[in-house]
Amino acid sequence: MYEQHPARLVRTVTGPLAPERVGGPVLAHEHLALDLAHGGDPTAVLGARHRQAVTAELAALREEFGLSLVVELTCRGMGRDVRALARVAQESGVAVVAGTGWYYERFHPPETAGAGVGELTGELVREIEDGIGGTGVVPGVIGEAGSHDDAPGAAEVRTLTAAAHAARATGLSVATHAQLGRGGPAQLELLTGAGLAPHRVSIGHQDLLDDPGVHRELAAAGAYVAFDTVGKESYRSDESRLKLLLALLDAGHADRTLLSCDISRHGYLTSEGGTGYGHLFRSFLPRLRAAGADDDLIDLLTRRNPLRFLTGGRDVPGSTDATRTHQDGEL
C-alpha cells in the first residue's frame, strides 16, 4: 500500500536542515518537554518551569562540545509540547527534531483503544504532512514508539504497525521504547514484517539489557542499537554500559550504534544536581576514548549514525571511512 521515500533533509521544529550542516554531535534520544505524571510518577516532568534550565544546558553544550542537534522523542500521550521545543531550539541555538507516534500501552490516549491500524496510520501521516496540532511544526521521526514486555501487547501491535506503515508512507524512521531493553527482537520483527527496512529502525534502551547476543542480533539484522540511557546509574552502571558497548563495537557494529542520555525527569537536570544532557560528553565518551576510541569513531557514533538514521541511510560527509569501527584493533 505504501512506498518507501527516504528523507533527504532532517525535519526540525524550526524547519528543514541539510545533514551536511550538522557539524557537531547529535543526542539521539532525549526529552526537553514532557509530562508522564499521569502514569503515576510526578517527578517525570519537564514543564514550563524547567524550560530555562533545559535551554541553558543545551546552549552550554553547544558552546563546549558543539552540540548541533537533539532528537526529542516525546510523542503522543507523553505531554508533547512542540511550541516549547521550538522556543528551546531558537533560544539555545541547537536544532531539535520532534517525534510522533505512541508510547507503550500504559500511556496510550483513550482514542487509540477503538482505532484500527489504518486509522492510526492515517493520523500519523496527516500529522507528519500537515504539522502537529495546528502549530505548523512537523515531526522528523516516529518515536518513541513503545512496548513493555518481551512481545508487544495487542494495542502495541496496532500502534507499532501503524508506525511502520506511516514511516513507509512518509520517509521517516522509527525509534522504539523497549521497556528496560526487553522485546527488541519482537519489535524489529513486527516493524520489518510490516514492510519497514531495518535500517529505518532504532531499538531503544538496549544498554539496559545485559545481553550482547541480542545487541549483535539486532545490529546484524540492520537495525540501530540505541545505548540511550547513559548516566542512569540507578538502572545500570556506566561501567557495565561501556563493557556492553565495547562488545558491540568489537563485533563490528559501530555503524549501527546510537548514544544518548534520555533525560526524562527534572531531577536529571544539572540545575537540580543531576547528570544532565552533557553526561555523555563529559563522562562517558572520555571513558570510551580511554578504551581506544579515536575521533573518527566518536564522530560516527555521535553524528554520522544518528543523521543516517534520521534520513533513511543517506551518507553524511566528513567520514574518513564510513564502515570503520575502531583504530588499529584497539577496541
From TrEMBL:
<feature type="binding site">
    <location>
        <position position="177"/>
    </location>
    <ligand>
        <name>a divalent metal cation 2</name>
    </ligand>
</feature>
<comment type="similarity">
    <text>Belongs to the metallo-dependent hydrolases superfamily. Phosphotriesterase family.</text>
</comment>
<dbReference type="GO" id="GO:0016787">
    <property type="term" value="F:hydrolase activity"/>
</dbReference>
<keyword id="KW-0479">Metal-binding</keyword>
<feature type="binding site">
    <location>
        <position position="31"/>
    </location>
    <ligand>
        <name>a divalent metal cation 1</name>
    </ligand>
</feature>
<feature type="binding site">
    <location>
        <position position="144"/>
    </location>
    <ligand>
        <name>a divalent metal cation 1</name>
    </ligand>
</feature>
<feature type="binding site">
    <location>
        <position position="262"/>
    </location>
    <ligand>
        <name>a divalent metal cation 1</name>
    </ligand>
</feature>
<dbReference type="Pfam" id="PF02126">
    <property type="entry name" value="PTE"/>
</dbReference>
<feature type="binding site">
    <location>
        <position position="144"/>
    </location>
    <ligand>
        <name>a divalent metal cation 2</name>
    </ligand>
</feature>
<dbReference type="GO" id="GO:0008270">
    <property type="term" value="F:zinc ion binding"/>
</dbReference>
<protein>
    <submittedName>
        <fullName>Phosphotriesterase</fullName>
    </submittedName>
</protein>
<keyword id="KW-0378">Hydrolase</keyword>
<feature type="binding site">
    <location>
        <position position="29"/>
    </location>
    <ligand>
        <name>a divalent metal cation 1</name>
    </ligand>
</feature>
<feature type="region of interest" description="Disordered">
    <location>
        <begin position="311"/>
        <end position="331"/>
    </location>
</feature>
<feature type="binding site">
    <location>
        <position position="205"/>
    </location>
    <ligand>
        <name>a divalent metal cation 2</name>
    </ligand>
</feature>
<dbReference type="InterPro" id="IPR001559">
    <property type="entry name" value="Phosphotriesterase"/>
</dbReference>
<dbReference type="InterPro" id="IPR032466">
    <property type="entry name" value="Metal_Hydrolase"/>
</dbReference>
